[in-house]
Request: fold
Amino acid sequence: MTDLEKHGDDQHGDDHGTPDDAQGRLPAMTGGYLPVEEPIANPGLPEHTWRPTDVDEGAAKRAERQVSLMFLLSGVCTVLFVVAYFTLDIGDNWTTFGGLGASTLFLGLTLGGALLLIGVGIIQWARKLMADHEIVEMRHPARSSDEDRETTAAVLQTGLEESGLGKHSMIRRTLLLSTGLLAAPAVILLRDLGPSPASVANAEEGTGLKHTFWGTGDRIRVVRDVVGTPIRPADLQIGDLVNGVPDGLLELEGIELQVAKAKAAVIMVKMEPREITPGPGREDWSVDGVICYSKICSHVGCPISLYERTTHHVLCPCHQSTFDLADSAKVVFGPAGRPLPQLHLGVDDEGYLVAEGDFTEPVGPSFWDREK
Reply:
């Protein structure tokens, strides 16, 4: 008996005040009642077709071995991913299909293979070994009754039992092995987010988070970006802005250069010394009106160099944070939360500008702190 039939049997007037003589009918637009159409006759289901694995124990065993093999091969692909990650350099230029580097190609193939084999294995498992029978379910209201909810929970429990996880121990173990090993790529790929803040080895090369290239030597010269020529204060005119980097940084290559430059890049501006308002304890941090700040915005790390000579303001093009370079690069507008870090300038024996040490405050977005 369907839900509608049962509902009809119980209908002797409802909670909404429908009169008894209207049972089996629906209200019409005119205020009368229309007869309710009965559901269509049950067309029935075709005869169930049994799968080979349902009737042949040998076929079921072969299917179990096939699915388990796919899960095992997925685990092998995951292990190969880890091996490729640590043995192949990013810059490796082996001859490969489409000109892709060996690292990119092997990482993609192994991780993709691991995920693909798990997916194919689960599909084969469902097609050949999980319970296979037809179910007819009448449509029900949007919110199920408590009884229906209890029934659904029981059906889900039955489905779990019929999936065969308890019966096919080989599949269960190999599935757990293959999916468990997939945690390895997720963990080791965290290395590509950047070096550890406490990494001493990386800090020596200017790639750690807590130090920049300015701290790798004693009184490093400030040179012009791209060309690498040193700078004397007399070389600059009032109002000049120069993009600078540490001497020696341009000798790096590839990713190492980009990472180091992303934190060590600076801008130098020359103005009248009397216009500079130095911060506490920084009275001697400029040389003949030449003052130096980090080029990296303290909001989200965009490079800045849009300079307005008359106001000594420099603008970040990303989110319009504006800094007053004549007043310790304090924020005068925009979302930046702190001034640009200042580099302590001096001159060497030949009169060239040098850094008296590394930055004493965070460079870029403020997600860490460092003592002076």
Remarks:
- The chain has three domains: 3-35, 52-137+150-192, 201-355.
